[in-house]
Amino acid sequence: MARKKNAFYAQSGGVTAVINASACGVIETARAHSDQIGKVYAGRNGIIGALTEDLIDTSRESILSIAMLRSTPSGAFGSARYKLKSLEANRREYERLMEVFKAHNIGYFFYNGGGDSADTCYKVSQLSESMGYPIQAIHVPKTVDNDLPITDCCPGFGSVAKYVAVSALEASFDVRSMAKTSTKVFVLEVMGRHAGWIAAAGGLVQDHGIPVVVLFPEVEFDEAKFLARVDALVKSHGYCTVVVSEGCHYPDGRFLAEQGTRDAFGHAQLGGAAPVVANMVKQALGHKFHWAVADYLQRSARHIASKTDVKQAYELGRAAVRMALKGHNAVMPTIERVSDRPYKYKIGMAPLSEVANVEKFMPRDFITEDGFGITESCKRYLMPLIQGEDYPKYKDGLPVFATLKNLPVEKKLPAFEMK
Fold first, then answer.
1. If we measure between CA atoms, which residue out of 417, 361, 363, 359 comes closest to residue 119?
2. pLDDT (tens digit, 9 = 90+) per residue, 207-266?
3. Which of 21, 72, 151, 396 could be joined to 334 by an S-S link, Cβ 3.0–4.6 Å?
4. What fold, for 5-143+303-356+389-399?
5. Whose CA is closest to 164, among 357, 305, 21?
6. Is the pTM of this model over 0.85?
7. Element holding 195 (H helix, E strand)
8. Annotation marks residue 309 as catalytic
9. Domain 157-302 homologous superfamily, CATH
10. Per-residue model confidence as pLDDT tens digits over 78-91
11. How many CB atoms lie within 10 A of CB 195?
12. Domains 5-143+303-356+389-399 and 157-302 belong to one CATH topology
C-alpha cells in the first residue's frame, strides 16, 4: 500500500488576530485523521519555507500548545509577503515546490492567506497535474481587508472591525470631553487599500450619537465636500471623529497617503492618510486635532477579538482538511450567510478559479448617499461579525499566548537560491 501523504501548511501576507485559530483547525483536524494524513509540516515564514525546504514539524508540538494557537495572535510559524510570479515568468519556483513536496511525501497543501495566496494555491494545483505529482491544494481564507469574493466574510475581518469600532467609540468619548477647550477633530486611519470594509466598521459609532465621517476607497475624495461636512459637525456637536481608510484616493487615482514606493507584492506603499487629512482640517478650518494610525494594533488585538471571527477562523481551517480528505482540489472553504437576525451561516466551497485575483468591494448601497457614512443594510451585515468576546487566558495582568518550539524537519535537497 502507498504511504499516507503528509500535509504542508503555510501562512501568507499580513497576519491577523485569528489566523492561528485557522492553523489550529487545520492541525487538530489532520491529527484526528492520522489514518489518512501523516504529519503536518508548516512553512517557516510562509511559502519561503517551502522554497528553501525550511519546514517545521508540528507533530513535535504538544496537544496543549496547538490548542493554545486558537487564542494566540499573529503567525505562529512566520508569514511572508512573497508573491510567486506567473508559471510562465518563473516556473523554477513552482517546480521547486513540487520537488520539496515529493521529497517529504506531501500530498496536501493548505495555504492560509488572501487573494495573492489564492492565486498561488491555484497555480500549484495546476502545475501538480501537469507534472504528474498530485497535490490537493486548498486555500484557507484570511484577510482583514475582507475583500475575497464569494465568501460572506473573511477570518480576521470581524476582529479588526470590532477593534476599530471600539477604538473609534472610546476615542470619541475622549474628544467629546475635551472639545470645549482642546481637540475638536480626531482622525483614525485604518487598513483597507482598495476596499472600505474596515473603515465602515468605524461608522458603527453613529448609533451611539457620535458625529463621524468615514472616508472609503470606493468613494473619490472631495476635499471641499469633506471639509464642509467636518465643519458642520463641529459646529453642531462641538467635535467630530474621522475614520479614514489608507486607500482613500483623489479622483485621479492618487492615494492621499502615497509615498511613491511599492511593497513586495507590487502594491503602492502608503505612508499615512491620517496626518494628511488632519492637516487639511487644521489649515482650512483651524480646528485643533489629534490623529492616530491603527496599523498593527488593529490586526493583532487578540485581547478584544470577535468570538464570531475566532469560531469561523477555526471552522474554516477544519473544513479545509475535510475537503481535502473528500478529494477536493483547488477550492476554498467559504462562509455562506443564511440570516442576519438571528445570525446563521453554513460552510460552503468555492473554486479557486473564481477566487484568485478577484477583489470584493463595498456595495454602494452599504454607503450613505453623501459618501460619508454607512447604511442600515451595512450595519446588518457588520453587526453579527463583531459579536461576542473570546478572551485569552491572563497571567500577571497580561494575556498568555502560545510560543511553539518550531523544530525543523531534516532537509533532503540541495539548497535553493531565491531570486
1. 359
2. 999 999 999 999 999 999 999 999 999 999 999 999 999 999 999 998 997 755 455 555
3. 151
4. Rossmann fold (3.40.50)
5. 305
6. yes
7. none
8. no
9. Phosphofructokinase domain (3.40.50.460)
10. 999 888 887 778 88
11. 23
12. yes
